[in-house]
Automatic annotation (TrEMBL):
Any one of the GO CC terms: cytoplasmic side of plasma membrane
The protein's name in its UniProt record: RING-type domain-containing protein
Keywords: Metal-binding, Zinc, Zinc-finger
Organismal lineage: Eukaryota, Metazoa, Ecdysozoa, Arthropoda, Chelicerata
Superkingdom assignment: Eukaryota
This protein's record includes keyword Zinc: yes
Gene3D superfamilies found in the cross-reference section: Zinc/RING finger domain, C3HC4 (zinc finger)
InterPro entries found in the cross-reference section: Znf_RING, Znf_RING/FYVE/PHD, Znf_TRAF
Length: 176
């Protein structure tokens, strides 16, 4: 069983970056930035064997020439850059980003990106009447069977602004 703790990557594109992800197995700690804990596409290995992502490295380097973890001094020529290609990440095995909502799908990142966007049945929304978080597929039944809201919707809408947006959408989306 995979750890319930999500790990984040960055530098691999908007579809993956900074999204807590459950990797199966978990990413090895030595491949993560020793400071922020993320897996970066580009990192720097210090001579003391601590790895820093570019953001952490350049911010720390601006302050001093010491490792932020163990305070050992290093010279720029002792730092080894490392790159991980997006193609390598796409083969890693992960759980669906909706695992916390009940989805048990688990596969390669490349497969899970498509699953999440097109097939996952465990996306959630907030009911606009009572505000409860609920699976999107269960929302119509929730509302039709008498949701807990006793009066008006939880979110108030400016009817004039809403009407203007609908008019704009009709002009843009439904061109003759």
């Amino acid at each position: 069983m995979a750890s319930a703790c999500g790990q984040s990557v960055f530098g691999f594109g908007a579809d993956l970056d900074r999204r807590p992800t459950i990797f199966v197995p978990a990413l090895p700690s030595e491949s993560l930035c020793s400071l922020c804990g993320m897996l970066p596409a580009a990192s720097f290995m210090l001579p003391c064997m601590h790895r820093l992502c570019g953001s952490c490295f350049f911010q720390c380097r601006h302050i001093s020439d010491h490792c932020p973890i163990d305070q050992r001094v290093f010279r720029q020529e002792e730092v080894a850059p490392a790159l991980i290609k997006k193609e390598a990440i796409l083969d890693f095995r992960i759980r669906c980003w909706n695992a916390g909502n009940g989805c048990d799908a688990e596969d390669a990142v490349s497969v899970m990106l498509d699953h999440f966007a097109n097939a996952c049945m465990f996306h959630t929304v907030n009911c606009q009447k009572c505000g409860v978080k609920i699976l999107h597929r269960e929302l119509p039944g929730h509302v039709m069977s008498g949701c807990a809201a006793t009066s008006s919707p939880a979110r108030y809408v400016d009817d004039n602004a809403c009407s203007q947006r609908l008019d704009l959408c009709a002009r843009v989306c439904f061109v003759d």
